[in-house]
Design a protein that fits this description.
Rossmann fold, Helicase, Ruva Protein, domain 3, alpha/beta, five-stranded parallel β-sheet, elongated, single chain, about 270 residues
């Protein structure tokens, strides 16, 4: 297929959040650095960005960077009741058969947090797609997690990630107690034109190929079609490689990307 034709060892624009393919734009670098600081300080951090901007990939890169001292547990579907969320967290903290009674469940979580502290491990709770959280009660439970602390440190850090509408939701006065606990917040913007060029080259090289596979006019058109959102760039670039392979084209120019646009919009 097109991988061999373009000298690639693997697919360069896969949808999976592989940290090896994380292009570190200035925005991604700042987001990762800020999240790293929040985790080290065991605080609550808020990360927002459009669909496909790389929030989940950044969280995976953060996990790889922080090392074995930090125990990450991910909640990918936050459409839960408050008690369900606590049971998911308890399971992530290696509590066997979490209790159905809230008072006992909180005792189990407390015991797990102190046990991990004794082992020199720090739990990190990552809530993805947080704009889907159904009510304030879940945010209250996340806020109360930071009440688990010693004199000089919290016993758990929380990263809340979501789409831009999450910021509007949290602006409501009813979320003021939660907002006051957020020590760090960052919005991840789409890539610019120059960053789109760098992104394409970076992922081609990471997949074993050579930079410059996309012509300047092709990059311009990809940027226009994708708005600089990495997931959309991936979709356009993958289709362009398939069309280019079918044409025996040694590089991807704007005419190939234009054909891709027609297919994506049809």
């Amino acid at each position: 297929m097109y991988k061999e034709f373009y000298g690639l060892a693997e697919k360069p624009f896969s949808k999976t959040p592989d940290p090896r393919f994380l292009y570190m734009s200035s925005g991604h670098q700042e987001a990762l650095a800020r999240l790293e600081y929040a985790v080290e300080e065991s605080e609550i951090a808020l990360l927002t960005g459009d669909i496909g901007c790389g929030k989940t990939t950044i969280s995976r890169a953060l996990m790889d960077r922080m090392g074995d001292r930090y125990h990450f547990l991910f909640v990918f579907n936050p459409r839960l009741t408050a008690d369900e969320l606590l049971r998911v967290i308890a399971s992530g903290l290696q509590v066997e058969s979490p209790s159905l009674q809230k008072d006992l469940l909180l005792q189990e979580i407390t015991g797990a947090l102190y046990r991990m502290h004794g082992e020199g491990r720090i739990p990190v709770v990552v809530i993805d797609e947080a704009q889907l959280i159904p009510d304030r009660e879940l945010f209250d439970e996340l806020r109360l997690l930071t009440n688990f602390q010693l004199d000089d440190m919290n016993l758990v850090s929380v990263i809340v990630m979501g789409q831009p509408e999450l910021r509007g939701m949290l602006a409501s006065p009813v979320y003021e107690p939660f907002r006051q606990r957020i020590s760090l917040n960052f919005h991840l913007a789409p890539l610019g034109l120059e960053e789109t060029l760098e992104y394409l080259d970076f992922r081609i090289v990471a997949a074993g190929g050579e930079p410059g596979l996309f012509s300047p006019d092709a990059v311009q058109r990809i940027y226009e079609l994708s708005g600089g959102v990495p997931r959309r760039i991936n979709a356009v670039a993958t289709n362009a490689l398939l069309i280019g392979f079918g044409r025996d084209a040694s590089w991807i120019d704007a005419s190939i990307v234009e054909e891709t646009a027609a297919e994506l919009l049809s």
